[in-house]
Each structure stands twice: as structure tokens, then as C-alpha cells.
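Example S7 (C-alpha cells).
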């Protein structure tokens, strides 16, 4: 028997959903060429950033760290550099993968207690744990997603002048 998510979990999910909508919304209307065009000196492009969010954020934190999915843990790094999108990969494919990983993460978040301990910790990357519960991970992912949504705002404005939110 599954129970409904707690009010805290619903609030965390609401915030995370808002940031994910921002990521996808700021890219709405860009064609494949624009999504691949680097506009900042570091050279990343919008599509690569979404792939990073898919693999290094949503999949990594929820499937590997929270759930401890052995297949995902074993496959870490097999996808190459998440910031590199091959020329044959369609933009829609990357965006659909992001949506699918987000949906999977939502299921994990909705069915796991906020104070549940993590199933796996990547000591080789981060040393001693600085996140300890699902709640910690969700807050980390909200922060990282919001940060990258801001990066996408800057890229989009440089690409065609569109801004996500204009306060006057």
C-alpha cells in the first residue's frame, strides 16, 4: 500500500516542477540549430545543458544515489561527457529523455520518505557524504536545476533576445 506524499514532499515537488518548467519553457521555440549553438565563451550549448541535467542530475541523484540502482551505478560514465551531444542525436530526443528522467525522479520522490537515507554515495567523487536524505537530494537538485535555468535564460537572450520573465 502506498501513501500519498506528505505536504513537505508535495512542496518540494512543486518547487522542482517549477524549475523544470523553466528549463523547458525557456527553450520553447528554438530550433535544433539554435539549441546546439554555443553563445558563451565556455562553449556549452542549450541541448548539452539539458543532457547534463538528464544524466548528471536527474538520473544520477535519483536513480543512483537515492535508489541505488546497480545498473545505473555501473553505467556511470558510459555515456561519455554529458556536455557533448552527438550530431546525429535529435533535439527532441534529448528533451524527451529529460522529461522521462524527471518523471522517474518524481515517482522516486513521491514514494520515498523525505528523511529516508540514501542508498548509495559516490565517495570517489565527493568524499564523505554531505547529503544524507532524500530531502537533501531534492533540495540540491532544485538548486542545481534553478542555477542551470538561469544559464539557459542568459543563453536564450543571447540567441534571440527572448527572456523568461520580465518584471516592469
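Recovered sequence:
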Amino acid at each position: 500500500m502506498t501513501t500519498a506524499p506528505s505536504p513537505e514532499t508535495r512542496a518540494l515537488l512543486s518547487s522542482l516542477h517549477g524549475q523544470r518548467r523553466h528549463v523547458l519553457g525557456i527553450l520553447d521555440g528554438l530550433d535544433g540549430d539554435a539549441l546546439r549553438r554555443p553563445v558563451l565563451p565556455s562553449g556549452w550549448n542549450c541541448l548539452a545543458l539539458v543532457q547534463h541535467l538528464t544524466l548528471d542530475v536527474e538520473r544520477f541523484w535519483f536513480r543512483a544515489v537515492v535508489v541505488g540502482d546497480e545498473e545505473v551505478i555501473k553505467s556511470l560514465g558510459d555515456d561519455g561527457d554529458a556536455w557533448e551531444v552527438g550530431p546525429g542525436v535529435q533535439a527532441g530526443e534529448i528533451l524527451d529523455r529529460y522529461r522521462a528522467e524527471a518523471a522517474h525522479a518524481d515517482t522516486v520522490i513521491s514514494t520515498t520518505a523525505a528523511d529516508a537515507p540514501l542508498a548509495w554515495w559516490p565517495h570517489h567523487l565527493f568524499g564523505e557524504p554531505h547529503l544524507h536524505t532524500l530531502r537533501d537530494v531534492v533540495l540540491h537538485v532544485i538548486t542545481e536545476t534553478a542555477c542551470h535555468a538561469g544559464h539557459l535564460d542568459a543563453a536564450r537572450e543571447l540567441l534571440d533576445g527572448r527572456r523568461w520573465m520580465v518584471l516592469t
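Notes on this example. The chain is about 60% helix and 0% strand.
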